[in-house]
Each structure stands twice: as structure tokens, then as C-alpha cells.
Amino acid sequence: MRRVLVLLGKDLRLLRRSPALVGGLILYPLIVALLVGMVVRYVGERPRVALVDADGLPATLTVGGQDFDVDETIAQAAGDVDLVQMDEDDAQRALERGEVLAVVVIPNGFARQLRGMVQQPMLELRLTRGGVATSIRDKVDALVYRLNLELQQTFIRSNLEQIGLLEQGGSGSFLGEDFTVIGLDGAEAKLAELERSADPEVAAEARQLAIFVRQVRVALGRTEGALRATANPITLEETGGQGRVQILSTQVQAYALALTLTFIGILLAAASIAVERDENVIGRLARGLVGRTQLVGSKLVLVALVGGLVGLVLALAFNVVVEVAGVAGGVDWPRLPLVLVGVLLAGLALGAFGAVIGTVAREARSATLVALLVALPVILLGLVPRASAPAAEWISHAFPFLHAVRFFEATLADAHPAGAVGREAAWLVGLAVVYGAVARLGVRRLLA
Amino acid sequence: MTDSAPIIAARGISRRFGRRSALEPLDIDVRAGEALALVGPNGAGKSTLLAILAGALAPSAGELRVADGATVGWVPQRPAVYSRLSAIENLVLFARLEGIPDPAARARELLDRVELPADDRPAGRLSGGNQQRLNLAVALLARPRVLLLDEPTAALDPRQRRRFWEIVDDLPRQGGAVVFATQNLEELGGHASRVAVLADGRLAFLGTREAYAVAPEAQVFG
């Protein structure tokens, strides 16, 4: 252990003498992490979908006696989908090139069917290939749901107007037929006159009819609630606009932490182990001064310590941003020790992985380049959504990045993170042991 | 001298790097009081043999024995020091790894002995001669009984070379031993008591300096 600490002290001293290197090592991945976090959020939330109006919808569409502003209705229903109007050919090309993830076609005759209210009109959905299609289908389903909801609300309003006409009387139209009704108010007034009739038989029948009219009024009074309840048995009330603005999402923080650690860990470990050969000291160390386990161990501890420091600074930076900007996010203070545990475990696993790269590359410059080349696909692999490519997730399990992200997501967001944190911690420890053992074997290459 | 038990005894040691054989099986002893010169052209196996004797490189086959309690110092051809640490920092670091009590005092002592300034200049900015002196100082940290030197004076000017040998020659006189690789045959006369000649990884000759001078098989430089 003493020798590990001596080597560690040497590496930390060398790092302290390279402030520009350390600054770059921290700033570069941090900037990349924030950019990736934002891109991931954006891509996840607003897929681009082409809208093809093959029916030539008018600016205003009248359905069931109600006028709809077509553009406004579509815009309100778009929600999490970035709808872009295109013609048929452009939309198809865009789908093939991947510029849009789906095409929604309003077919010829759509408006006629909608106005007729006899035949259910259909929209056509063309999806991109691959696992992401499921997610897009869900978002387009949500779009159609919201369109139906808009129409439904209008129909309910129309039906309620008809009921109002039945209650109060007057003139109206339904399915193009004009009509005039006396209404319950008029019927009650007439029945009241008949109740005062001299003929007791007429008066008795009028009283019975008046009772019926009151019963009908009570029943119609409940119609609005019943219509809305049957149209939407369950509704979701959104109480937005309260609390703080959410800019530092849990996902962005988790990615920022894991990505920064991955770059620092892999690069630092790979370069610091290869530099022992560059400096020609590896042979001197191998003469019983420092064992292979101690050499690899010192690099793992180096990455864990530097990673721990950077992780702590990042977590504190998140919280400072949160406090100063008055936004939501940041690390709950009681969770900070758990974040640090994650940073240290991720540092050990990433350090071991980087040490393997260092022993394979053998020379510090090559090791740095190889580490950079390896770190990027490892990170990108961990960012591929499970639904999009399950194989990417399986492969990602072999690298520390995915487990670091999941550890931090669970720590930052889960109400009860113990299960997820324990599972990911076990993965990180396991990977540290496996890669550490491989790096230990690889040290022999440095001596050759 | 030759009757005493060897400090280092190598039996049948050889080394391969992949398919290439760098050193064919050979036997060699290093005894107290002697200075053994390893002679041979580039690629003959001198550095490989020294690295194996130093314990820096494991032999592919054979057995290496070092007498109980004997420490071995190694001066590789290219200085084996951290170029971004100063001379004193390098010495303190390796003294700590060697487990030497009071590493700072031992480091200062050796800086004086090899006549290096105790400033904070990184070792990488020292002259070639001073880097080689630092290389020697690191090898002397653990007070070795045997000093292994790989073409140690190749980068030194005549004055530095003379001073270097003054320090190294002390060791055999004090009961230790020196093994040095060289391509400079003039160094044999002043410093070697025995000569081993290597050619293409094979031991072509092993004997006294006087025998070397008259042995035709030892003349590998043409």
C-alpha cells in the first residue's frame, strides 16, 4: 500500500504541474456532456414528423355545425411532435433520408368523412424502420388522441347547445335540418295555464305532464357532466407553472457526470500507465520496487481520486447553478455522499478500463489517442435508447459508462434508489476487477 | 577472486520476443571484486542480458540466482527517471519505493556524490551527461553490491566519462562487482577484469581481459 501511495503522490504531483492539461481534461468532456444531454433531451422529446395534406383541408373546417381553425387545431394537438408540412414526394424522401421519423398523411376525402359524421375518417401513418418506431408511434398516437379530444370537446359543446335549445326553446339545425322547438320553458308555461283549466280532467293531466317536464329538466341538467364523463372517464389535470423552471434535468446531470468521468478516467489511466514506459522507468519499477497489481492499483486510485474531486466540483456546480438561477435540479444534499460513492466506483472501473488501453497502446501519445477513440463509441453506445437497438445495450453492459449513468440517474431521481444503486455498484465493482486483472496481465507488454 | 561464491549466477538463461530469439541459453557468473564487460555489436543481446540480470526482464528459460542480501543496481542505457520531476524529487521517490529510511537525506547524499545541482529543474531539461549521472545516482540508492550498466558513458564527454568511472570503479574495490555493456573497446583496458562477448544473442567468448586480447573468436567487430 505504501508503494501505491508513493506512485499516486508522484502522479498527482505531475498532474498539479499541468494545470492546462487538467483544465482541458475537465472542461472538454463537461462541454460535450452538456451538449449531449441537451441533444438527447431534444431528440427524445420532439421527433420531426412530416404532415402531408393530400385532401387540401380548408383554413376553416365546419364539423357538426362547429368551425375549426385547421392550423390552430393541428398546432394545439402537435404536442411533443415537431410537425412539418410537406408535399407527398418531399415527405417520402425525407423519411427515406431520415430527416423525418414519420409521415402522417391526411388522405383525400378526409374532410368530407369528418363533416358527414357517419364514416370514421382515417389518417395514414408511415414510420421509419428500427426500434425508434415504437416511440414515434406512441407520440403520433398521442397526437391523434389530442386531435380527437379537440373534436370531442367541440362536439360536446355542440350537443350542449342542442340541449339548451330543448330547455329554453327556439330555432336550430341538426345535420342540415332546420327546426323550431317550444322547449321545456315554453312547455311548462303552457302546462301551468292548462293546470288552471276549469275542466278538472284537463287540469289533472296537465299537472302530471308538468311533473314529467320537471323530471326531464333535472335529467337534462345532468347531461353536460354525463357527456364529459363518458367521453373522458379519466382526465389529467395539469398544475404546471408552479415551482422552479426545469433546465438541469436529472438526465443531463447524470450524463454530464458519467461522460466527464469516462473521458477523464479512460484518458488519465491510459496515459499515466503508458507514460511509465515512455519514461523508461517501467523496468526499474518491475525490479521488485512495484508489483504489477500495485502499479495498476495506483492508476485506479488516481482516477478514482481525480474523478471524485471533479465529480464533487460538478455536483456542487450544479447546485450553485440551481440556487443562483432559481431553477430546478441539482443534487439533493443528503444524496451527495451517494453521488460521491458512485463517482469513486465509476472512477475505479473506468481507471481499470483505461489501464487496459494504456498497456495495449504502450506509448503515452498512442494511448491518449486510442483512449479518445475508444471513449467516444463507448459513450455513444451507452446513449443509444434500449428501444432503438437492444444489442447496443447488451454491449454497453461490458463498459462502465452505462452503469455510471444509471447509478447517477437512480441517485439523483429515484425516491428509493437502493435497488438500482446496488445493482449498478455491483456492475462497476465487477468491471473494475475484470479490467484490472486484464490490465495487470497487460503490464507485461510494457516490459517487452 | 574467481573461487568465491558468485553474487549473481545465471544458468541457461535465454529470452525470446515472440518468434525472435534475443538471447540464446547461456551461463554467466558475477563475482565479488570483478568488473565484467559485455562486448558486442548492436543487437547482440547485451541490453537484454543486463535487463535479465537486473530482474527487470524475466528470462524465457533458465535460472537466475542472486546471493542472499545482495542488492543489484541497474543503470539502463536510456535514463530511467521521470523527466518532469527534478533530480532530487526523482531520488526521493525511488528511495521511498526502495524503502530507504530518511529518503531525503540519502537523496542529498547521492546528489553530492554524483555532483548534481539540487535545483528544481525537471530532469528532462538536464544535459545528457547530468541525466546519466542522475540515472547512476538512482541505481546507487539502495547501496548495491552489484552495479549493472548499459553503455553508460555513450552520451558523456571525456571529463564526464572520467568522473563517472571514478564513482563506478569504487564498487569492485570495496568488494562489490560491476557489469557493464560497451562498444568502446578502450574502456576495457581501464575498467574490465573479465570480458564476455555476445554476437547474435550467443555468448561467443567469456574470459579474462588478457585472454580476450588474443582470442580470435572474441573479435566480433571485424
Description:
The complex is a heterodimer of chains A (448) and B (222). Chain A is built from 17 helices and ten strands. With 222 residues, chain B is α/β, with parallel strands linked by helices. Chain B has seven helices and nine strands. Chain B has a six-stranded mixed β-sheet with strand order 5-6-7-3-8-9, sandwiched between helices. A three-stranded antiparallel β-sheet of chain B has the order 2-1-4, covered by helices on one side. In chain B, strand 1 and strand 2 form a beta hairpin. In chain B, helix 3 packs across helix 4. The two termini of chain B are 32 Å apart. The interface between A and B is medium-sized, with 21 and 26 residues.
**Shape designation of chain B:** globular
Q: Output the strand order for the largest sheet of chain A.
A: 4-1-5-6
- Count of separate DSSP helical elements of chain A: 17
Taken as a percent bin, the fraction of beta residues of chain B is: 25-35%
Strand residues, percent of chain A: 5-15%
Strand order of the largest sheet of chain B: 5-6-7-3-8-9
Assign a percent range to the helix content of chain A. Answer: over 70%
Low-confidence stretches of chain B: none
Q: What summary fits the major beta sheet of chain B?
A: 6 strands, mixed
Mean pLDDT of chain A: 81
Main pleated sheet of chain A: 4 strands, mixed
Write the element-wise H/E pattern of chain A from the N-terminal end onward: HHEEEHEHEHEHEEHHHEHHHEHHHHH
Class of secondary structure makeup of chain A: alpha/beta
Tally of contiguous helical segments of chain B:
7
Mean pLDDT of chain B: 88
Subunit arrangement of the protein: heterodimer
SSE string of chain B = EEEHEEHHHEHEHEEH
| Pair with the biggest interface | A-B, 21 and 26 residues
Estimate the helix proportion of chain B, in percent: 25-40%
How far apart, in Å, are the first and last alpha carbons of chain B? 32 Å
